[in-house]
């Protein structure tokens, strides 16, 4: 018996993607108000089970540009992105949230594409975890089977998009936080090149900016249209324009197949099988697929963990500067404090850690002198059951579990390269499996072209399929 939880029905949203809804609005077949009402009704039906929503503003949205290609399409922002008048929690109870005074640059970019902001989605505390779970509150659950994790840190967005509450949602990615929940929930999740879109306020404060914003969607064209519109909003002259990618290309690509992760995690059989099937399909499409290795190993893992700890340490020690006098570090969860404590023990290594991490950008770029694209798993194994990555798990155990699970994605955050998670079928337990494609900095176009080709030849499963 299926445990799937979804909201698809014959209402104003139907089963259209964002591009389809925008086209229907331009033809006068449906209104933005009708779409928002449908979102509210769908969320009321499934969110009590999935727990992906923070704020519901369907009755009082922030409306996007009427001239944007996605004008009137409803979306959510992640709970770390400031929208004027809305209060962010960043997934924590460590401070009393207050309404933002102004839109963030990220919110302005979303609005410029035409999207209507109708609420915010859940994330784990400060985005440090790979599962949207909390020390005290109910977790966000996977709509394919609510016993399992929806991924993180953009887990609320992924759960609601996969369940059909809305066609796409804002997400951001500092270690895999777009791609991990995309893989867990069977979605398209593209992390753009560092600097492609407007600066994220959190990333801009980092010595090495790991964070990129984007969307989670159910179709390649939704992601492509969003990225083209967002890129036009603020062009980065250091990067080639993406343009509107509308389908696959005919180029023959050199694709490097990566099976060994920097953490040394064992890839499970379901993931390895789905990856092999995608590699075979790419070969049939005319591409040259050959095995390769990233050339990074334990040093990278140690350095990334130290850097992640530095970010947690900055929250613990600088929380009052960030959030005001109500911030209480005693209310932070065990993962945040464990990471901060780890950093206290290794703080003297910081200059060397930053030096080595900055060199990763060059090391990773060198791989693309031999390959046009790299193909790998997104995650070393399928989504775990709720509780396995709970912040209540002792820190040393939780750290080991995270390294065993999030084995492939952080490399593209440190290098700044673009990467996309795409649905690749199902595991034996019915949960989605994702595959990961990455390309040289600035080459999102190639990733989208490949994604279109895979979507056409291997259509994604739908959660409402019988």
Question: Could you describe the 3D structure shown?
Answer:
This protein has helices spanning 18-26, 32-50, 105-112, 155-162, 179-185, 201-204, 220-233, 269-284, 298-323, 334-346, 350-367, 395-405, 410-415, 444-457; strands at 53-56, 74-78, 116-121, 168-173, 188-191, 212-217, 254-258, 288-292, 373-377, 419-426, 432-438. By secondary structure, the chain is of the alpha/beta class. The protein has one domain (18-457): Amidase signature (AS) enzymes (Alpha-Beta Complex). The strands form 2 sheets. Strands 4-6-5-10-11-9-7-8 form an 8-stranded mixed β-sheet, with helices on both faces.
Give the topology, please.
Elements: H1 18-26, H2 32-50, E1 53-56, E2 74-78, H3 105-112, E3 116-121, H4 155-162, E4 168-173, H5 179-185, E5 188-191, H6 201-204, E6 212-217, H7 220-233, E7 254-258, H8 269-284, E8 288-292, H9 298-323, H10 334-346, H11 350-367, E9 373-377, H12 395-405, H13 410-415, E10 419-426, E11 432-438, H14 444-457
Parallel strand pairs: 2-3, 7-8, 7-9
Antiparallel strand pairs: 1-3, 4-6, 5-6, 5-10, 9-11, 10-11
Helix pairs in contact: 4-5, 7-14, 9-10, 9-11, 10-12
